[in-house]
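Quick start: read one record
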Amino acid sequence: MPITDKGPIVIGIGNPWRGDDGIGHAVVDALAGTPGLTTATCSGEPAELMELWQSHHPVILVDAIVTGAAPGTLHRLDAREPLPRGARYSSHGIGLAEAVELARSLGDLPETLIVHGIEPARLEDGAGLSPEVRDTLARVITRITDNLAEAGPRSRPAR
């Protein structure tokens, strides 16, 4: 198990040029510059994700996920348990569930890995965030702040 000394990280996954698949990037943009918090964006490629989260605690991922729920529905998943395979995590190639399981099999899964998934309304090229997903932005940020507080003082960003 790697030493976790880099503090908390929030990683926004997806493609901001594909409608609601850009919600992860929007959350990271809103949190950028928060003292004591590292933020990053990526496409969801497993090796890139594992490199980004290396030595961070806790790790929080934000992505659009398709489960069939109403657009804007928030899902919170704890990766200590396998992520549900029925959901489609975003519109990128390999699914987030597969990336997490690959990291688990390689012994590279962070001690705390929380996934905040937001049900998209649209994933068309060139579209911006839908009103339903844009309206969840503040709630997702509040949930992330709560997760950081639950993880302990070492990972709580300064205000």
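The chain is about 30% helix and 20% strand.
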